[in-house]
Design a protein that fits this description.
Length: 71
């Protein structure tokens, strides 16, 4: 995770450097393969992601919550 932050800092500059980087086992995606960034943001902020009718695998949301708690 530190490598990713440092790489962004060197490539794009300090202004683009992320504050936190989490390495997770899976990402919430739609059935067509698009990453649900709204869901990721909600999980990171500890909020309820709301209605998830288009998510491919609903169990990923709980797995991500557990992985964030463990880190």
């Amino acid at each position: 995770a530190d490598f990713a932050s440092e790489h962004v800092r060197q490539t794009l500059g300090a202004i683009a450097s992320p504050g936190m980087v989490y390495v997770v086992s899976a990402l919430p995606k739609t059935r067509s393969g698009k990453i649900l960034r709204r869901v990721l943001r909600s999980i990171a902020e500890g909020e309820d992601p709301g209605d998830l009718p288009t998510i491919e695998d609903g169990s990923i949301v709980e797995r991500l919550r557990e992985e964030l708690r463990a880190s």
